[in-house]
Specification:
Elements: E1 2-6, E2 9-13, H1 20-26, H2 32-38, H3 44-55, H4 61-85, H5 90-104
Antiparallel strand pairs: 1-2
Helix pairs in contact: 2-4, 3-5
Length: 112
Amino acid sequence: MINVEQEGLLTKIGTTHFSTLEVSKIDEHLCFVATVFYGSDNTPEVQALREFRDNVLMRSSVGRMVVNSYYGGLGKKAADFIQREARFVIPFIRTGLDYLIKVYSTPSQVDK
């Protein structure tokens, strides 16, 4: 079990019990990678990625493992590394994320 504490909110994230409600409690504070790629965690693209997480990744055990790894510290470490040492990869990864968003979003979610 991983404990994530942010601004007094303690949320327990387990590898098999990870509800959308638990994710929504912490995702406003922990969008590390999204902030690096989109400049803010309040963009339509980030919202689309959250929906992909909730509606696609969280529906499979492998997807839940990916989400648990991200919120367990991997996301913050990756974002810090990219921002500090590998900013040149941002356009390439963002292109991939933009494609993912386009495929899994409705036109009203992201104006492209």
